[in-house]
Amino acid sequence: MDFGGAPVFYFFTTALLLLLSSNIESANASIHVYDRDPFREVGNAYLLSGGSEGIAASLATPPPRKRAFHSATHDGLSYIRFENITFWRSKAAADHHSKLAHSTGLIQVVIFEAADRDNIGGSPYGGQKSICCTADLAKLEGCRQGEVIKKPSATDINWPIIVDVHFGGNYQSAHLRNTEVYITKTGMYNLFFISCDPELRGLVMTGTTLWKNPDGYLPGRMAPLMNFYVIMSFAYALLSLIWFSQYMRFWKDILQLQHCITAVIVLGLFEMTLWYFEYAHFNNTGARPVGITAWVVTIGAVRRTVSRLLILSVSMGYGVVRPTLGGLTTKVLLLGITYFLASELLNITEYVGTINDVAGRARLFLVLPDALLDAFLILWIFTSLSKTLEQLQAKRSSVKLDIYRKFSNALAFTVIVSVAWIGYEVYFKATDPFNERWQGAWIITAFWDILAFSLLCVICYLWAPSQSSQRYAYSEVTGEESDDEASQSLCRGSPTGDVSLVKQERREKSDEGSDLEEAAEEDKRE
């Protein structure tokens, strides 16, 4: 695979500069849109989930509660804003009441912190928990029959917050006036619209809610990632600078393998930068830009696919022990296409248009194929790497053997750390079902980007461009350079020396033809 080297770099650099110079459109809305969303029956209540997000406490003093709605953005304030919220009941339910009746149906807007979840609802005589107050609970709990049961929070008697919305007469719709609920305590907040009236079966809702943190509209779990992607963009830019300085210096001796490494670096830089702009846009507008998100997810899927195929190809000895992959090329490409599709589908489901801090259930069904493909890739990589090491040991190619041992150690360390982190991630999520540790959840996502970047740096170090790269690539030439000098030239891109990087014993020359035949037979068997 020849990715064109320098032209590719200049193309992506130009694209990034154009993106940096463009203005990010700003608005005053973090948008959860409800488009005739239906209420569902849960126990003795009808409810609709309005969202769940981690919100940090306001940095500024909220205005008086009587000043309910403001059109401007409040810097330093955290709040949940309700706009154009309208509830619709069926015509049959509306016709049960006269036009002059005052209150003919009640919907309650309930906002509570995850830590106060047990303060909503009650249980008569230790039985099943009820959201709505029943006749028995009214006697035991002192609640009002037909309304949501609420107990004051231990930290703030004004929470949970409940706002009542009444239907009037025989109207089919009821409106919640535009208002804001200010957040003065950091936590994971949940919003529910609940009705305890059995006549309001089939209730639907339209409108929007806007959730804001002190620094913008990013959900609390995502906010640290914006700064993280700035750091990763600079890290990839630094790696690009170092790599391309060597790449341009020895461009006449560049290997196909090094073209692939170049592509991974450029894709990584482009992906990290796009992630930052996607999060910055989200933070300013409150809505995820579907176009940008789809592009960055696709670029990420391409980068992960190319990275894995690169590692697999290196493990097979491509460009170093063998000139081509031979009969394995089709299998490798087929695996790459399959992995790309699985990764793309998983990340589109997880990221495109997603606002809530709670991941959807659909993700669970898409993680399995991606995980199985990764497990298969790891097995194939280490199987191929073992065969390559055996070939190098048999040919006593000490320099290549040393490089591949370092590479195998780096891979083994990466796999061990990955497995350990997966175990931690499972533990983290299993012990936090209500996302109360949302402030530290960003590291779960960030870790994999850091690990991938670290492994890429190791590969760049081991296969850095040098003036002897072409003679190093699948060569059997015997030079006067010692193994130690060759290793330094190979690993660190030393400009000195005009001999091959791989010193072979003289007897290897007589075995060159047989080695090629063995490789061809191995390809056929695989």
UniProtKB/TrEMBL annotation:
Keyword Transmembrane in annotation: yes
Record carries keyword Ligase: no
Transmembrane regions: 226-245, 257-277, 362-382, 403-422, 442-464
Location in or out of the cell: Membrane
Residue segments, region Disordered: 480-526
Signal peptide: 1-29
Chief localization: membrane
Cellular component GO terms held in the UniProt record: Golgi apparatus; membrane
Biased composition (Basic and acidic residues): 503-512
Protein's membrane topology: Multi-pass membrane protein
GOST seven transmembrane domain: residues covered: 224-470
Keywords per UniProt: Membrane, Signal, Transmembrane, Transmembrane helix
Bias-annotated ranges (Acidic residues): 513-526
Name of the protein: GOST seven transmembrane domain-containing protein
Species per Swiss-Prot/TrEMBL record: Escallonia herrerae
